[in-house]
Amino acid sequence: MWLSICILCLLHLATCMRDVEEIEWNRSAYLVKTLAEAQDGDRVLGCTGTLITPSLVLTSSKCVDNTENNAVVIYAKGSRYRKRAVASITINGDFALLEFHPIKDELCPRSPAPVRLSRLPLNITLTAAPWEKVNLVDLPEAKCRMTGFETVSVSNFSFIHNVMQTPAQVVRDGDRLIVDVASGSPVCWDDIGLPLECLLPNKGWTQVGLLHSVIRNVDNRTNSTLTDCDDIRVLVFATFSDDTLPTMLENHAVQMFVTTKRCFTQAPVETTERELIDEEAQTSDE
């Protein structure tokens, strides 16, 4: 109850989403779709996630019922898309990690091609802590954005590949961030897990959280189904402001450091001609 009251008090401070831009999926190829079998076995949970290493996707814990779920990740490959069966699932708090056989494509292409991994608040240095907790105090003043898939029909989620991007004005609510979408939003139920990115000093666009839940308009009694997104009014984002996510990533630390250095530092690890030939051969075999 107190959370709802607090959110209602803050809504007038938040700017509704606008200026929605359609972009090509392969220009934001870190964005993926996740499909997971529900615990009852009769439903499939469709969500959004981000590729953070060649073999890891980060999404919301609401997108998987348990660690034994059968799940699939759908990712962009040029103008096409590919699927990967999930081998293991880790859940902790608001977050879920889906691990699968590594993608062999080049995920850190040379500029100006876009990087195909989501950037996390990770430092590659021996003079600072590797994980930099997100400072929620500064984010309401930062430039932020959301990137997710267009929703034409919730039941058709896995077949729609148009990507939408929109600026977002965030408001802090405890350890979470909220965004008011009272004026209409492209965000829908299947966007749970989509990344919230903010422009951070010395890092550029960095994922600082993910969509974990939505709040609907409870006054609209005539529209109470989950197949319509028009009554969604508030987006609630889980943030990387504590040790939950880095604890989950501990067993993948080496891979995280290598991919972060390769993709996001000014002096990335160079790929030799032989490595490029090997990667192309591996890609053609997939």
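[next item in queue]
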Amino acid sequence: MRIATWDGLAGFDGNELKLYDSEYSLDWIVSTSDGRLWSQDRKLGLMEFDGQKWIRALDLKNSLLESPTVKVVQVDSKGKILISTDGVGVFKYDPVLNSLIDLKLDKNNVHLIKEMSDESIWI
């Protein structure tokens, strides 16, 4: 089990808690279907864990996002990462294309993103 902490990425094997990378402060963590781990560092943006260290995938401050404060993250069935921000909107990140799309939804705070069995997204 992987855990995002302000002291970095931690892992728990049922007996012991191990800190993998203490360089970044993490608010959340998600795993895509291919097993890759994703998170956000408040200063550097969207990060991917390569098994040993975090690599910046997307600088949120220099992207479509006006604010890097992420509220909700959900991975959809196609491996895209849905990102809700604090009053800025909802975005879809494609890790394969390294692209970020503004879904042009209401900019109110979103507290839940859920994909249904028919692949529709409820916010």
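[queue empty]
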